[in-house]
Write a structure and sequence with these properties.
Blueprint: E1 3-11, H1 16-26, E2 29-39, E3 44-53, H2 60-74, E4 77-81, E5 88-93, H3 98-109, E6 115-121, H4 127-132, E7 137-139, H5 147-160, E8 165-168, H6 177-182, E9 187-192, H7 203-210, E10 214-221, E11 231-238, H8 245-268, E12 272-275, E13 278-281
Parallel strand pairs: 5-6, 5-8, 6-7, 8-9
Antiparallel strand pairs: 1-3, 1-4, 2-3, 9-10, 10-11, 12-13
Helix pairs in contact: 3-8, 7-8
Length: about 280
Protein backbone atom coordinates (compact mmCIF):
# COMPACT_ATOMS: atom_id res chain seq x y z
CA UNK A 1 0.00 0.00 0.00
CA UNK A 2 1.15 3.53 -0.76
CA UNK A 3 2.11 5.82 2.13
CA UNK A 4 1.48 9.55 2.27
CA UNK A 5 2.86 12.34 4.45
CA UNK A 6 0.46 15.06 5.59
CA UNK A 7 1.99 18.25 7.02
CA UNK A 8 0.02 21.19 8.34
CA UNK A 9 0.14 24.26 10.52
CA UNK A 10 -2.45 26.68 11.87
CA UNK A 11 -3.32 28.77 14.86
CA UNK A 12 -3.43 26.55 17.93
CA UNK A 13 -6.88 25.61 19.21
CA UNK A 14 -8.78 22.74 20.82
CA UNK A 15 -9.63 19.63 18.80
CA UNK A 16 -7.26 19.86 15.82
CA UNK A 17 -5.75 16.39 16.23
CA UNK A 18 -9.19 14.87 16.82
CA UNK A 19 -10.59 16.36 13.60
CA UNK A 20 -7.64 15.28 11.45
CA UNK A 21 -7.53 11.77 12.94
CA UNK A 22 -11.29 11.35 12.54
CA UNK A 23 -11.10 12.45 8.90
CA UNK A 24 -8.35 9.94 8.13
CA UNK A 25 -10.16 7.14 9.96
CA UNK A 26 -13.42 7.90 8.12
CA UNK A 27 -11.60 7.47 4.81
CA UNK A 28 -9.80 4.27 5.89
CA UNK A 29 -6.50 6.00 6.55
CA UNK A 30 -4.24 3.93 8.82
CA UNK A 31 -1.82 6.22 10.70
CA UNK A 32 1.78 5.00 11.12
CA UNK A 33 3.25 8.18 12.60
CA UNK A 34 1.64 11.25 14.12
CA UNK A 35 3.58 14.09 15.71
CA UNK A 36 2.26 17.47 16.80
CA UNK A 37 3.40 20.54 18.69
CA UNK A 38 1.71 23.70 19.82
CA UNK A 39 4.15 26.57 20.34
CA UNK A 40 2.94 28.72 23.25
CA UNK A 41 5.32 31.53 22.27
CA UNK A 42 3.83 31.97 18.77
CA UNK A 43 0.39 30.41 19.15
CA UNK A 44 1.06 28.16 16.15
CA UNK A 45 0.25 24.46 15.85
CA UNK A 46 2.26 22.03 13.72
CA UNK A 47 1.54 18.43 12.74
CA UNK A 48 3.10 15.69 10.61
CA UNK A 49 1.39 12.40 9.92
CA UNK A 50 2.31 9.34 7.86
CA UNK A 51 -0.59 7.16 6.74
CA UNK A 52 -1.93 4.84 4.06
CA UNK A 53 -5.41 4.14 2.75
CA UNK A 54 -6.21 0.54 3.62
CA UNK A 55 -9.08 0.49 1.11
CA UNK A 56 -10.67 2.86 -1.39
CA UNK A 57 -7.50 4.99 -1.72
CA UNK A 58 -8.02 8.64 -2.55
CA UNK A 59 -6.05 10.44 -5.23
CA UNK A 60 -4.39 13.72 -4.18
CA UNK A 61 -7.15 15.71 -5.91
CA UNK A 62 -9.88 13.63 -4.27
CA UNK A 63 -8.18 14.03 -0.89
CA UNK A 64 -8.02 17.81 -1.38
CA UNK A 65 -11.71 18.04 -2.29
CA UNK A 66 -12.76 16.12 0.82
CA UNK A 67 -10.22 17.71 3.15
CA UNK A 68 -10.70 21.34 2.13
CA UNK A 69 -13.78 21.95 4.32
CA UNK A 70 -11.75 20.99 7.43
CA UNK A 71 -8.78 23.00 6.19
CA UNK A 72 -11.01 26.05 5.75
CA UNK A 73 -12.62 25.60 9.17
CA UNK A 74 -9.23 25.38 10.92
CA UNK A 75 -7.47 27.85 8.59
CA UNK A 76 -4.83 25.22 7.80
CA UNK A 77 -1.73 25.57 5.70
CA UNK A 78 -1.32 21.99 4.55
CA UNK A 79 0.44 19.81 1.97
CA UNK A 80 0.00 16.14 1.07
CA UNK A 81 3.40 14.71 0.11
CA UNK A 82 4.28 11.61 -1.87
CA UNK A 83 7.44 10.21 -0.19
CA UNK A 84 8.25 8.13 -3.28
CA UNK A 85 8.91 11.25 -5.34
CA UNK A 86 12.54 12.33 -5.03
CA UNK A 87 12.91 16.12 -5.17
CA UNK A 88 15.61 17.62 -7.37
CA UNK A 89 18.54 19.23 -5.57
CA UNK A 90 21.22 21.70 -6.62
CA UNK A 91 24.54 21.69 -4.74
CA UNK A 92 26.67 24.84 -4.55
CA UNK A 93 30.33 24.33 -3.66
CA UNK A 94 33.72 26.06 -3.70
CA UNK A 95 37.00 24.22 -3.06
CA UNK A 96 36.32 22.00 -0.03
CA UNK A 97 34.87 18.66 -1.05
CA UNK A 98 34.03 16.81 2.18
CA UNK A 99 30.35 17.78 2.25
CA UNK A 100 29.92 17.35 -1.51
CA UNK A 101 31.46 13.88 -1.52
CA UNK A 102 29.30 12.80 1.40
CA UNK A 103 26.08 14.11 -0.16
CA UNK A 104 26.78 12.58 -3.58
CA UNK A 105 27.47 9.23 -1.94
CA UNK A 106 24.36 9.34 0.25
CA UNK A 107 22.07 10.43 -2.57
CA UNK A 108 23.42 7.79 -4.96
CA UNK A 109 23.20 4.97 -2.43
CA UNK A 110 19.83 5.72 -0.86
CA UNK A 111 20.12 7.35 2.58
CA UNK A 112 19.16 10.75 1.13
CA UNK A 113 16.02 10.51 -1.04
CA UNK A 114 16.88 13.25 -3.52
CA UNK A 115 18.11 13.56 -7.09
CA UNK A 116 21.17 15.77 -7.44
CA UNK A 117 20.46 17.54 -10.72
CA UNK A 118 23.66 19.59 -10.87
CA UNK A 119 26.63 21.00 -8.99
CA UNK A 120 27.63 24.65 -9.40
CA UNK A 121 30.99 25.97 -8.22
CA UNK A 122 32.99 29.17 -8.42
CA UNK A 123 36.11 26.96 -8.75
CA UNK A 124 36.84 23.88 -10.88
CA UNK A 125 38.50 21.95 -8.02
CA UNK A 126 35.62 19.51 -7.53
CA UNK A 127 34.72 18.92 -11.17
CA UNK A 128 36.32 15.48 -11.38
CA UNK A 129 34.63 14.28 -8.19
CA UNK A 130 31.24 15.41 -9.43
CA UNK A 131 31.58 13.91 -12.88
CA UNK A 132 32.61 10.58 -11.35
CA UNK A 133 29.03 10.44 -10.10
CA UNK A 134 27.82 11.31 -13.64
CA UNK A 135 26.30 14.63 -12.51
CA UNK A 136 26.59 17.88 -14.50
CA UNK A 137 29.19 20.29 -13.11
CA UNK A 138 29.03 24.01 -13.87
CA UNK A 139 32.15 26.09 -13.25
CA UNK A 140 30.93 29.68 -12.90
CA UNK A 141 33.69 31.87 -11.44
CA UNK A 142 32.61 34.82 -9.31
CA UNK A 143 34.10 38.29 -9.39
CA UNK A 144 32.81 41.59 -8.08
CA UNK A 145 31.89 42.49 -11.65
CA UNK A 146 29.91 39.34 -12.53
CA UNK A 147 28.41 38.32 -9.17
CA UNK A 148 24.89 39.47 -10.04
CA UNK A 149 25.00 37.77 -13.44
CA UNK A 150 26.27 34.55 -11.86
CA UNK A 151 23.40 34.55 -9.34
CA UNK A 152 20.97 35.07 -12.21
CA UNK A 153 22.44 31.97 -13.88
CA UNK A 154 21.88 30.02 -10.65
CA UNK A 155 18.27 31.26 -10.46
CA UNK A 156 17.71 30.30 -14.11
CA UNK A 157 19.14 26.83 -13.50
CA UNK A 158 16.85 26.36 -10.48
CA UNK A 159 13.85 27.26 -12.63
CA UNK A 160 14.98 25.25 -15.66
CA UNK A 161 15.69 22.05 -13.69
CA UNK A 162 12.69 22.48 -11.35
CA UNK A 163 15.02 22.45 -8.33
CA UNK A 164 13.21 22.03 -5.00
CA UNK A 165 16.22 22.19 -2.67
CA UNK A 166 19.47 24.13 -2.95
CA UNK A 167 22.35 23.14 -0.67
CA UNK A 168 25.32 25.36 0.10
CA UNK A 169 27.81 22.53 0.68
CA UNK A 170 30.67 24.79 1.80
CA UNK A 171 29.92 27.42 -0.84
CA UNK A 172 32.13 30.33 0.16
CA UNK A 173 30.09 33.12 -1.36
CA UNK A 174 27.60 35.49 0.24
CA UNK A 175 24.23 35.34 -1.53
CA UNK A 176 22.34 38.52 -2.32
CA UNK A 177 18.99 39.29 -0.65
CA UNK A 178 17.34 38.80 -4.05
CA UNK A 179 18.57 35.20 -4.30
CA UNK A 180 17.99 34.35 -0.64
CA UNK A 181 14.43 35.66 -1.03
CA UNK A 182 13.90 33.26 -3.92
CA UNK A 183 15.26 30.39 -1.81
CA UNK A 184 13.37 31.03 1.46
CA UNK A 185 12.74 27.66 3.11
CA UNK A 186 14.32 25.90 0.11
CA UNK A 187 18.05 26.32 0.75
CA UNK A 188 20.25 24.85 3.48
CA UNK A 189 23.71 26.06 4.52
CA UNK A 190 26.40 24.49 6.70
CA UNK A 191 29.18 26.16 8.67
CA UNK A 192 31.30 25.66 11.77
CA UNK A 193 29.62 26.59 15.05
CA UNK A 194 32.24 29.06 16.28
CA UNK A 195 30.38 31.97 14.70
CA UNK A 196 30.31 34.86 15.39
CA UNK A 197 33.83 34.10 16.69
CA UNK A 198 36.69 33.00 14.42
CA UNK A 199 35.37 34.42 11.16
CA UNK A 200 37.23 34.20 7.89
CA UNK A 201 40.04 31.89 6.86
CA UNK A 202 41.35 29.04 9.01
CA UNK A 203 38.76 29.17 11.80
CA UNK A 204 40.09 25.95 13.37
CA UNK A 205 43.58 27.44 13.59
CA UNK A 206 42.06 30.47 15.30
CA UNK A 207 40.17 28.16 17.67
CA UNK A 208 43.37 26.25 18.44
CA UNK A 209 45.14 29.47 19.36
CA UNK A 210 42.32 30.26 21.79
CA UNK A 211 42.33 26.76 23.29
CA UNK A 212 38.70 25.91 22.56
CA UNK A 213 37.26 22.78 24.20
CA UNK A 214 34.24 22.31 21.91
CA UNK A 215 33.99 22.32 18.13
CA UNK A 216 30.85 21.80 16.10
CA UNK A 217 28.72 22.56 13.07
CA UNK A 218 25.38 24.22 12.34
CA UNK A 219 22.99 23.59 9.46
CA UNK A 220 20.34 26.21 8.86
CA UNK A 221 18.02 27.62 6.24
CA UNK A 222 19.49 30.43 4.20
CA UNK A 223 18.23 33.93 4.99
CA UNK A 224 19.14 37.46 3.99
CA UNK A 225 21.09 37.80 7.25
CA UNK A 226 24.41 35.96 6.85
CA UNK A 227 24.59 32.67 8.80
CA UNK A 228 21.55 33.56 10.94
CA UNK A 229 18.73 31.61 9.26
CA UNK A 230 16.48 29.22 11.19
CA UNK A 231 18.61 26.39 12.61
CA UNK A 232 17.79 22.82 11.56
CA UNK A 233 20.54 20.79 13.22
CA UNK A 234 23.74 21.15 15.24
CA UNK A 235 26.42 18.87 16.65
CA UNK A 236 29.36 19.41 18.99
CA UNK A 237 32.46 17.43 19.89
CA UNK A 238 34.71 17.87 22.92
CA UNK A 239 38.41 18.42 22.15
CA UNK A 240 41.47 19.31 24.22
CA UNK A 241 45.02 20.65 24.11
CA UNK A 242 46.40 17.51 22.44
CA UNK A 243 44.50 18.16 19.20
CA UNK A 244 46.51 19.96 16.53
CA UNK A 245 44.90 22.58 14.26
CA UNK A 246 44.92 20.01 11.45
CA UNK A 247 43.13 17.47 13.63
CA UNK A 248 40.56 20.06 14.67
CA UNK A 249 39.92 20.92 11.02
CA UNK A 250 39.48 17.24 10.09
CA UNK A 251 37.11 16.64 12.98
CA UNK A 252 35.25 19.75 11.89
CA UNK A 253 34.89 18.39 8.35
CA UNK A 254 33.44 15.16 9.71
CA UNK A 255 30.91 17.00 11.88
CA UNK A 256 29.94 19.37 9.06
CA UNK A 257 29.24 16.44 6.72
CA UNK A 258 27.17 14.62 9.34
CA UNK A 259 25.11 17.65 10.37
CA UNK A 260 24.43 18.77 6.81
CA UNK A 261 23.28 15.30 5.74
CA UNK A 262 21.05 15.01 8.80
CA UNK A 263 19.47 18.43 8.20
CA UNK A 264 18.79 17.58 4.55
CA UNK A 265 17.23 14.26 5.54
CA UNK A 266 14.88 16.01 7.99
CA UNK A 267 13.93 18.45 5.24
CA UNK A 268 13.36 15.76 2.61
CA UNK A 269 11.20 13.72 4.99
CA UNK A 270 9.05 16.81 5.66
CA UNK A 271 10.00 16.88 9.33
CA UNK A 272 10.96 20.57 9.46
CA UNK A 273 8.49 23.42 9.99
CA UNK A 274 9.41 27.10 9.98
CA UNK A 275 8.16 28.82 13.13
CA UNK A 276 9.18 32.45 12.75
CA UNK A 277 12.96 32.62 13.16
CA UNK A 278 13.19 29.07 14.49
CA UNK A 279 12.18 25.59 13.46
CA UNK A 280 9.97 22.79 14.75
CA UNK A 281 11.41 19.38 13.88
CA UNK A 282 9.65 16.05 14.32
CA UNK A 283 12.46 13.49 14.49
Amino acid sequence: MKKWILTLSCGDRLGIVAKISAFLAHHHGFIFELAQFGDPSTGRFFMRGVFEFQKNPLSPSEFATLFNPIAKELDLQWVLHDPMQKPKALLLVSKQGHCLNDLLHRSKNGPLPMEVAAVVSNHDTLAEMTRWYDIPFYHWPVTSENKQAQEERIADLIKQEKIELTVLARYMQILSPKLTGLLTGKAINIHHSFLPSFKGAKPYHQAYERGVKLIGATAHYVSDVLDEGPIIDQEVLRVDHTNTPQELAQLGCDIESLVLARAIKYHLEKRVFLDGNKTVIFK
